Amino acid sequence: xxxxxxxxxxxxxxxxxxxxxxxxxxxxxxxxxxxxxxxxxxxxxxxxxxxxxxxxxxxxxxxxxxxxxxxxxxxxxxxxxxxxxxxxxxxxxxxxxxxxxxxxxxxxxxxxxxxxxxxxxxxxxxxxxxxxxxxxxxxxxxxxxxxxxxxx
Length: 152
Known about the structure:
By secondary structure, the chain is of the alpha+beta class. The protein contains five helices and six strands. The radius of gyration is 16 Å and the shape is globular. The two termini are 16 Å apart. 24% of the residues are buried.
């Protein structure tokens, strides 16, 4: 997975979603967090998902809270789509994890991570954000099919 803005640095960051974290019992500061999205750059993969992380808009002092959220995933297709990918061995992952919002398997499930999962679940209720993820996914896949890499 590669950050969208590493693939397309010329696209202004103004399209980045910013969310204000609400008061919470886990010590996550009530500040603005930027949502940064990353996509698979394997031209042969059709995973149709996005990896999302939330980063504070301003750096936090040590001990003031997490410098980023856990890696979260959102697959916008129905579970059956991912089940078919898994059946054909082309998804590279667990089809049950791919559909909907989930925590990266390398991450530990904690109250803070569940908190950020809930924020992402609320965000994807907005059809505009889902459409944005789909558009960006298609742009990255087209870029990858042309044989380019983010460093080129």
